[in-house]
Amino acid sequence: MKAAVSAMGYDKSSIDILIVQLATLLRNGVAVSMSTRRAEFI
């Protein structure tokens, strides 16, 4: 991604790349769903 941004003429430090892995988490014994569409992840 940084190479693509640089190839388009932008500074590659202008992009931040976040890596997210979905997992099943429990809160008070109840599974809490994570969603990338709703940007709900920990």
From TrEMBL:
Organism, scientific name: Candidatus Omnitrophus magneticus
InterPro entries: Rossmann-like_a/b/a_fold
Name recorded for this polypeptide: Uncharacterized protein
Source organism superkingdom: Bacteria
